[in-house]
Amino acid sequence: MDLPPSGFVLDRETKASERPGDHKDELRLWLRMLTCSTLIETEIRNRLREEFKTTLPRFDLMAQLDKSTTGMTVGEVSQRLMVSNGNVTAVVAGLLADGLVDKRPAAQDRRVQVLTLTAPGRKAFRAMAERHEGWVAELFAGLEPADIGQLFRLLGETKTSLHRAIAQRASGADKGDA
């Protein structure tokens, strides 16, 4: 197995692939997907911190608000990001303090707060998003376009399979498999 140059950290996926007979293919696949996701996320986190002095949670929250023309509630943002309202509230507090996000009461229920990007927030996000897109392209530059398409299709099938398995478990269809 060829290892990447300096700074490579031996991970669980690499260890599992060194002795494939010791691990089922599904476990090795999951570990490989986890490793790839972690490598990408760590690199994006580092670049956001170095270039924009921001965090991935702030970027992700701003990305959700950038897509919305009318704003979003904390609950809507937390649902989209799959995190708790408390996590969103903490990130919003920093964005409010920096003047990147605005918060106003919802017209239909004054107890609910609607979040929107401010003009400086939208400008800052768009600059980050442009760089982010370039970083992701750079990280995948070693793959051929056809391979990217095939991987995208296979991961879509994987996602569908996961949703199906989770739904079956939730419905009790596989109670005997516990």
Chain-wise SSE layout:
Elements: H1 12-18, H2 25-52, H3 56-67, E1 72-73, H4 74-81, H5 85-97, E2 101-105, E3 113-117, H6 119-139, H7 145-170
Antiparallel strand pairs: 1-3, 2-3
Q: Fill in the CATH topology of the largest domain.
A: Arc Repressor Mutant, subunit A
Helix content: 55-70%
Tell me about the largest β-sheet. Answer: 3 strands, antiparallel
Give the count of helical stretches.
7
User: How many domains is the backbone divided into?
Assistant: 2
The CATH architecture assignment of the largest domain turns out to be Orthogonal Bundle
Outline the structure in words.
This protein has seven helices and three strands. It has two domains: 8-53; 55-140, Arc Repressor Mutant, subunit A, CATH 1.10.10.10. It is globular and about 60 Å long. The protein starts with 11 loop residues before the first helix and ends in an 8-residue tail after the last helix. Strands 1-3-2 form a three-stranded antiparallel beta sheet. The longest helix has 28 residues, at 25-52. It is mainly alpha-helical. It has helices spanning 12-18, 25-52, 56-67, 74-81, 85-97, 119-139, 145-170, and strands at residues 72-73, 101-105, 113-117.
What structural keywords apply?
mainly alpha, Arc Repressor Mutant, subunit A, three-stranded antiparallel β-sheet, 7 helices, 7% strand
